[in-house]
Amino acid sequence: MSEQKIPLAGVIGHPIAHSKSPSVHGYWLRKYGLKGFYVPIDIDPEKIAEMLPRLADLGFVGANVTIPYKETVMEIADLITDRATLIGAANTLIFRKDGRIHADNTDGYGFIENIRQTIPDWMPKSGPAVVLGAGGAARAVIASLLDVGVPHIMLTNRTRIRAEKLREDFGPKVHVIDWVQAGNALDDADLVVNSTSLGMAGKPDLRIPLDGLRPGTIVNDLVYTPLRTRLLATAEERGCRVVDGLGMLLHQAVPGFERWFGKRPVVDDHVRAAVLR
Ligand code: NAP
Question: H or E element: which one contains 39?
Answer without folding.
Answer: strand 37-42
